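Hi R.,

Here's the chain you asked about this morning:
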Amino acid sequence: MIRLLFIVPYPELKEKVEHVLSNHTERKRLNAHIQVMTVEETPDVPADEYDAIIARGYTARKTLSKYTQIPTIRLSISGYDMVRAISECCELYHPKKIAVFGFSGQMYEVKSICRLFHISAEVYAPVHHEGLPKTLKKAMDAGCDALIGGYSANILARRNGLPSVIIRTGEDTILRAIDEAINTVDRIRHERINSQMYKTIIYSSKDGLLYVDAGGVIQVRNRVIRQMNGDASLMNQPLKQALPYLYKIFCSVIASGQQETGKILTIPGTKTTVSVSCTPVIANKEISGVVINLSDITMIQDLESRIRRKLSEGGHQAKYTFQDIIHESAIIDQTIETARRYAESDSNVIIVGETGTGKELFAQSIHNGSSRKNGPFVAINCAALPENLLESELFGYVEGAFTGTSKGGKMGLFEQAHGGTLFLDEIGEISLSTQSKLLRVLQERQVRRLGDNKVIDVNVRIISATNKSILKLSEQGKFRRDLMYRLDVLRLFLPPLRSRENDVEVLFLHLLEVQSQETGTKVPKLDPNAFPLLRQYPFTGNIRELKNIAERASVLKGGDFITKKNLQEALYPQDLEISSFSQTSAFHQGEDILDEPEKLRFALEQCKGNKTRAARLLGMDRTTLWRKMQKYQI
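And here is the predicted structure, written out as tokens:
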């Protein structure tokens, strides 16, 4: 909505404005307030009440000087408006000499127009309306026997007995003023959006940012740059005096017009070491200034260190096997059978499935079922790292390849996975640049560390996973088709939980057991009438979401019993807070704390007395299980 204030000197003009507004093509965007008043009555207008003011004559001049924050659009005098006023004056008063009152900029060709009517004219353009009386006397002394002009000039002329005609504003002039107001307001709003966007970008950056004009004066600085320099006052200060350690590189960029990056400096008086980048701002083929970016190297190194520690916490071993996949559905039996066949091959595998369907569980199971099971299983989430860190993690680097490198360099994950499996989770999230380098490694079976000039042979099987369609991404130009064909050799689709028959019930009861083990409480019983609620729930987060629901139900239960109402509340909470828990089976959660007789009882209980399944879960044959049961009198 555009809020307009029209200030008009006479009621007839108000009617014209209302008519033009009611027929304007953008009338739904306009909220116009029309006030009839003279220049002396110009109101006080709050700066935030209107987007633009439209006025004419001395009123427009007064609002321009009075309300500098609100754009004022002037209702100008058109040639037709002037001809009409002169014609009316001639018909009414038959003057010999007309005094034309207005602004000099609007009085072009007036004398020529008057000659067409066979009369003479004098143009008077007092700067302020306060000067009208003196100017009117001057006109009358010069022999003017009629006047045409604005509303204030007409009132004064009639008081002094001089015939007069108002120069009336036409509808075309009103329309042009409205269109100009709309364009002006839209332009100002767009500029404000751009200004706020740039301001937000600058002030949300974790790097220190400066803009220094061509004269070497700091025009823009963000909070980070101020903090780096001891909260010094930097705005409108000469760079040479405020931050002299940056002045040399600034002068170099101004002189060459070329960007300079990677300069390492220590801020004087501090222990902060920064990486400095300077980029010239070129407008109209001239350098108008330089943007200086300061990145705190200590922060970058700390971030990299934390990420590396987190990546290495899980080690490089696969914990899960196909026996750890809890299910009863035929569709998962078929999926496991397909995965077992893939495990016997050495071709690359891509696992496709929705979030929370257990893609890493199957990846580890395939590795442990393959001939590479004694080799490393190295996993990385491709979406968890920025592009530059992802490349250094995958391919490694040599010492000195970039700022903050470890002494002696670092082995990449391809090298660490040599002889084993590299699991690339969320493969659809990697950039096209990284895709190109990954493709070369897969084609050549060689990896080159960042900053190195030699290659290293690697023997790695790739298992990738995604919850997006790689084919669709390739059609959109977001994923290299040649890389897709390298990764998508054997495809394993993991069905969502809602397609797994009654697995949701089996998994829910299993997860309740896991939760009870973690909290040291008794496993709660579930009201049989509550099972339909589980079957009807869509589970967009699949097993990961089911874990959260099981935990909530365990908390909401009354005593040792989960009622239908408890489960309803767990499934549909008023304020859902999503948690994330590691996917582990009940048996392996308790493996380190149970002795052998307890393991046997636990496996038999989990398998509901089925000795064949219990033996499989325990990793032994049925005869061994029977012998141990006899030994411990189970």
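One quick note: The chain has six domains: 2-75+173-187, 79-168, 205-297, 314-495, 498-587, 594-631.

Cheers,
M.
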